[in-house]
Amino acid sequence: MRKEPETSKRGHVPVRMCMGCHQRKKKEMLIRLVKNADGAFSLDETRQRDGRGYYLCRDRACLKMAQKRIKGLGDPGMGG
């Protein structure tokens, strides 16, 4: 997996919001789920796939909260 730079040339740190707890964190600290055209969700390890992206903390509680907020998000196989 390619390591993304922590900051850009101008010193910008990409920040995203967790769809579970709504906390803002560095993009690299979150995982990204992608909803494709068929409505299926998958883990986006490269953070570059096409489709609607959702960011989540690496916490089971955030996944549970996001499942209530995001239509069609079942258990995407995030480990039991």
Describe the structure.
This protein is an alpha+beta fold and 80 residues long. The chain has a domain at 15-69: YlxR-like (Hypothetical Cytosolic Protein, Chain: A), CATH 3.30.1230.10. The chain is 12% helix and 24% strand. The protein has 1 helix and 5 strands; from the N terminus they run E-E-E-E-E-H. The strands form 2 sheets. A 3-stranded antiparallel beta sheet has the order 4-3-5, with helices on one face. Strands 1-2 form a two-stranded antiparallel sheet. The longest helix is centred in the C-terminal third of the chain and has 10 residues, at 60-69.
Please outline the major beta sheet. 3 strands, antiparallel
Counting DSSP E segments of at least 2 residues, the number of strands comes to 5
CATH architecture of the domain at 15-69: 2-Layer Sandwich
Proportion of residues in extended strands: 15-25%
| Secondary structure category | alpha+beta
Shape: globular
What would you give as the CATH superfamily of the domain at 15-69? YlxR-like
Along the chain, the helix and strand elements come as EEEEEH
